[in-house]
Each structure stands twice: as C-alpha cells, then as structure tokens.
Amino acid sequence: MSIKKPWAIGLLSFLTLILLILAFMWFSDWAFLRGPLERYLGEKLGRPVSMSDFRMKLRPVTQIRVANLKIGGDKNGGPDLVSLEKLEGGVRLMSVINQPVIIEVLRLEGGEAHLARDAEGKGNWSLAQSEPSGEKRPVPQVRQLALDRATVHYDDRKLDLKVNITGNTIKREDPTSASGRYGVHFAFDGDYKKGKFNGEARTAGLMDLVQNTNQTVPMQISVNSGTTKLFFEGSMGDVVKLDKIDAALKVSGATLANLYPFLPLPLPASPPYALNAQLQRDGKNWRLLGINGTIGRSDMAGDASYTLQEPRPMLDVKLKSRELHFADLGPLVGLEVRQQLDKQGQRVNTRADAQKARAATGRAGKVLPDSDFSLEKLNAMDADVQLDAGKIDMDRPFAFESLSVTLKLREGVMDLAPVRFGFAGGTLDGTIRLDATKNPIAARANIAVQKARIARLFPTNKLLSQSSGLVGVNAKLEGRGNSVAALLASANGNLGLASTGGEISNLLVELVGLDAGQALGYWLGRDKPTPLRCAVTTFRMERGVAVSELLVLDTVDTMIDGEGVANFRDETLDFTFRPHPKDKSILAARSPLHIRGSFGKPSPSVDAKALAARGGAAALLGLVVTPLAALIPLIEPGTGTDADCQGLLKTVEPARKNANGR
Questions:
Q1: What is the pTM of this model?
Q2: Rounded to an integer, what is the distance from CA 550 to the centroid of its chain?
Q3: Where in this protein does the record put region Disordered (predicted)?
Q4: Which alpha helices (H) appear in 348-459, and where do they start and end?
Q5: CB neighbours (10 Å) of residue 48?
Q6: Do residues 78 and 114 touch, judged by C-beta distance below 8 A?
Q7: What is the pLDDT of residues 52-102, one digit of tens each?
Q8: Which of 209, 168, 210 is CA-nearest to residue 185?
C-alpha cells in the first residue's frame, strides 16, 4: 500500500487540478481575456481595438458579452470602423474546433459601422494580413440575428452611393411583424449618383437569406426618391445579389425618367404615372408581368422584361392602351409636358421652363419640338417595344384615331417599323430610323397616308366637314439633328399629295376666289357641294426649306393654282393661291390669296395691289358713267378651264394610289 500511495496521491492531485481548472473555466467570467483579445484582434485587423468590458460563460453554447467595442479606422484616419455599445452572442463550442463556427444568436445594440470603398474598389474593411492561399476559413454561420439601433454607414465611391441603414428586431407582438411574417425592420436613407432616397424594409430570416442562396424569405420595401414612390412586397432570395425576386410592385412618380439611374432603365421623360405589376427576377432577367396603371391620362396594360447582358442590356415591352392621350407620348419626340418640381428641386421639362428657354434662344413662338433626344440613352441599351392603342385623344382636333407601333433599338440605331395610325378614316403608315451612333443623329422617314377622308381631316371646320373624297400622301425625308426641330430644319426629300373624286364646299371655293356674289347666294340659301375633279400638290425639300413644285385644286366651278414655301428653319410660311372661276358672277373681287406668317400663327391676306386696281376701276366707272357701271370690273366672265387632272395625277402616282387604294 505504501508503494501505491504516491501514485494515488499524484492521480488524485491531477484529477483535482483538472476539476479545479474545469470549475474555473465553468464559473469564471473570463474578463482577464479583454487585454490579450484587444491585442490579438488589433494585430489581425491592423487597426486599434478596444472594449470597456468582456465577459464569457463557457458552455456547450458559450455566451459572450462585450461592452463598448471599438475597432478603429484605417491608416488614413476617419471614424471608427465599428463602434458597439453592446454585443452578445451564443457560440456553439464544438463548432470552433469542427468549423464552420456556428453562432446561435447574435445581438447587436446601439452600434455603428462606417464602411467605405474607394474608386478602385478597395474597402476599408480589408484585413491587414491576407489569409495564405488555399487556407480560406469557412464563413461563420449566424442562426439568429437580433438588432437594436444597429446602424451601418456605407460610402461607395465606385458606385457613387452613400447610404445609412438602421436595423431593429421586430417583436412578434408588434403589429408590424404581420403575425410573425417579418422579424427585422430597416430604415434607410442616402443618395445614389446625386439622387436622394429614403425608405424602410421588413424581412425575416435575414442571415439565412445571406448564407443560403437557395432559400427565399418574405420582404417588404418602400422607397421614396423625390416624387418617385416604390412599394415592393413578396419574396426575395440572396440579398447580396438580388437574383431571386417574386413580388407585387407599385411605383408612381412625376416622370419615368427619374427612375434612372436607380433602375438601370434609361426611360424617357413622361407625365405623372402610377403603375402596378408583378416583379420577378431570375438571375440576369427581370420581368414585369401584368402591368396595369396610367401614364398621364393614358391607361396602360401589358408585360415587360429587362435582361442584363453584354454589351448592352435588352428591354422587351408589349403594351396596350384602350385610350391613349397623345400628349402623354410627347416626350418621346421632344414635346414639353406639364410636370412639377420634385422634392429634390429638380425640374423636369415644365412648359414654363421650355417657354423661357425658347425665348432665351430666339425660339419664342415656335411650334416644332426642340427638346434634345438623349444620345446616351439611345446607346445605353437595346430594345423591342410594341404599343397598340385602340383610341387616341389628341387634345386638339387632329385626325389621329388609333396607333400601332413597333420599335427596335439595336446598337444605338432605332427603327420605328412599322408605325401605323388610324388617320381620318384611313391610315398613316411609316418607317422611321434614328441613328444615334452619329452626332447629330441621322434620321430617315418614309410616310404614306392612305384613303384619308377630307371631311375627317378637318373635323372642326364646318365647310370642310361637309366635304367628301379621299386623300393620299407619299413623303420621303432625311435629316440630321438631335431634336425634331433640328431634323426638319436640315431635311431633304419630297412630298406628294393627291385627291380624286368626291365633293367640296362651294362656299369655301367661292370665298377663296373672293366671289361675294356666289358666296352670298350659297350663304343665304344652302351651301351646295361642288364635285372635286382633283387636288395635286408636290413639294421638294432642301436643307429644311420645302418649295412647292405643283399646287392645283380643281372643281367643276373653279380651278385654283398657286405656289409656296414652308421654311422649317425659321418656321415660316409664304403661300399664294390664284382662283380661276369657270362660271359667271357679279361682285367678284377676284384677287390672289396669300397665307404668310409663322407655323404657329399663319396669317391670310389678299393681294392689295390687284384688289385695289379692281376696286379703283369700279369706283372710277361709278363716278364717270353711272353707279351701275361700277359693277363692271366686279363681273367675273368665267373664263377658267379644267385642269389636266389625268396628267397631273401621273406626277404623283404613289400618292394617287394611296388615295384610291389601287
């Protein structure tokens, strides 16, 4: 027994020591580790680390508590990388050995983190010592994250993004948890490419979402940026890449253009809009399904998809409208729209601004759209867009009735082919190409009007609305410019118009011929339409100046010819019409009729010299001979002859075919 006693004493002492160590480890708060841990982390991170208190309870799920943890900024100074009032966590002890480290619960309270990335993409969170190649450690898994006033300030110079995000855990009894559906609330604000925004988000299972990309969690987001408001509710997967989304989306604002650059869609300016849709994303493909809402006063419905691809993203849109207000499409061709200041003080093509700009540039009183097309946007993506409108409201008495347009944009070249309007009971068909690879933009247009009804071309004109007959037009134009006004000011091409058959107001014809006797008779009695034999017009356009080559309107009573110039550079008109009556009349002060002035304010007048000569002769005869003799110069003998309609129509054969449909 005496031989074994030293061994037993040693074993007992060893076991006692082990028990004492285990007891110490079990009951100790490990506060003494604060200093060594500060030095270890400081070396590892390459920046000062401090904490006012450190406590740990060694258990199968070890509890760790840290107070006033601070991790300093990088060598360039600035705020602390991390500053936490309190951090508490529960770490599964065996996972420290087996890897990855499993953190059952992580609670952050009263914390701030200042993260930044420079223009080269280097983040201030980078470790001082990189891990040896091939020895990457598994990322710790956080099973549950609890936040209380935890804020992240993120400044990304590469993305031109600044954002502040504050997170708080939502308790189950809180109504905003939506019966436990949401567990974390975030409030955020910032600016992206100088555009300010703010909003809030709710989600559940945030850490699972980050670490398990094959899972989705419920998500609710609302964002405000100036007048733009967005609401999103549904499911999201992989919160870092955002490559899995299925949610109901509501978006509204003063103009679609303000969505860029928040959404990578270089959309044109528009009137105020409000749209609902189902938003889906799968990898690089975004889809808006069941679009329903309004743009301006126009209803919109359809589907859209947007694919992120190289070298340019692809937009595919199919929309329908029961009633389209044409003014809502105005921004597509550079027309001003009535819009307001957004909350950021950004103006968006208001009419007042446009008028001031026109006055400043000498374009006051001009009517052609002069807002620039965006070369950047036309080169930013490819697109296929189809729009069908069953009815068009023009706000003015124009003859457009419906619309169907197909747009293709490839490598900066936009083709509208075809564009079809229901027009005055007929159709207006066209193909238009804008080549934005050139500056200024190169444009080419072919336009054909088929079987347009004269009466419906001028629905508010009482004289013309009583007329009948069909009109055809054929036009080809080319030009260079970054707005509609600039394109037409440089355009070259030709235009032909033809009309055969039908009837036209005789009162209108006599008024053009200043035949007071005939006009008075039709006015006192009843306007009797006169058969229209033909109407033929051709123009040649060179560098924005359209000069008539042929201008004839022939009825059974009167033949009217003339010439004129429409100058698209300064938007002025100068036309002369000469009537040649075929019937006799008294009180005919026949004189050439002039239409001059601007596109916006044309001014009709008569030839003062011819009218004065005829009136002077009448006055002289009345004084010298007899008052009845004064009527002699005003008597129209009716020497006008029929125009060669057959020969004239051959000169505008494409337009004639468009009028007759054959």
A1: 0.70
A2: 42
A3: 119-138
A4: 351-360, 375-378, 454-457
A5: 14
A6: yes
A7: 999 999 999 999 999 999 999 876 667 899 999 999 999 998 888 888 889
A8: 168
**How far is 166 from 185, CA to CA, in rounded Å?**
8
Annotate 341-355 with DSSP letters as a single string.
Answer: --TT----S-HHHHH
CA–CA separation, 136 and 584 (whole Å): 106
The DSSP H or E segment spanning 519 is helix 516-524
Q: How many CB atoms lie within 10 A of CB 411?
A: 12
Per-residue pLDDT tens over the stretch 299-329: 999 999 989 888 888 999 999 999 988 777 6
Which tokens hold the place of 481?
């410019």
Residue 499: strand pairing partners? 471, 535
Residues with pLDDT less than 50, the chain: 1-3, 130, 333-351, 354, 357-362, 507, 510-525, 527, 584-589, 608, 610-640
Instruction: Show the beta-strand stretches assigned E in 341-441.
Output: 382-389, 392-393, 400-410, 413-423, 426-435
The reply to whether omega before 100 is within 30° of 0 (cis) is yes
Find all residues with CB under 8 Å of 501, minimum gap 6, and list them: 469, 470, 531, 532
DSSP bridge partners of 169: 184
Backbone angles phi, psi at 401, to 5 degrees: -125, -35
For 279, phi then psi, to 5°, come to -95, 125
Give pLDDT tens digits for 247-289. Answer: 999 999 988 888 876 666 667 778 899 999 999 988 889 899 9
Can you tell me the distance from the alpha carbon of 46 to that of 38, in angstroms, rounded to the nearest whole number? 11
d(CA 127, CA 124): 9
Q: Where are the alpha helices (DSSP H) in 31-142?
A: 34-45, 95-98
Residue with tokens 């945030």: 206
